[in-house]
Structure formats: structure tokens, C-alpha cells
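Tutorial handout. Part one gives the primary structure; part two gives the three-dimensional structure as C-alpha cells.
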Amino acid sequence: MDLGNGDVLWVGKGRPEADFAKFFEESGLERLRGVKAVAMDMNASCNKLVKRHMPRADRWYLSYPSKGESRTCP
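Part two.
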């Protein structure tokens, strides 16, 4: 999501690296150069691609409760 205007940047299906790679292929290098931060889950494939294509972007990792675990927001 582009926090500046609220636009969704990309939606994909699947979790393997090839699925995440589609975002980078479809976005283009010029667009990716302007990304300042990326929020993602701990998927190793996604993290690897972000490091490769957007090395200057800050990375924020999302945490999801495990099955049977609950969390509350402060």
C-alpha cells in the first residue's frame, strides 16, 4: 500500500519465491527505487527479494499470532 495516497501496490496469490518475484517484475526498477519502507511477514523468499531489489528500503516484519495464541494491541 502506498501510504501517501492509499493505493494498493500489488496483490498476488501464493507464497513461493516465484510468486513474490512477480511483484518485482511487474513494478519495474524505477518505481522500486522510490520505496522507503516495506512491511512484510517473515517469509524468507519475500525478504530475500526485498533485500535484492530494494536494498535501501527499511524492512518491517509483521507478527501474527500462532494457532491457539492470542495477542492484543496496546
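Part three, for discussion. The mean pLDDT is 81. Residues 1-74 form one domain.
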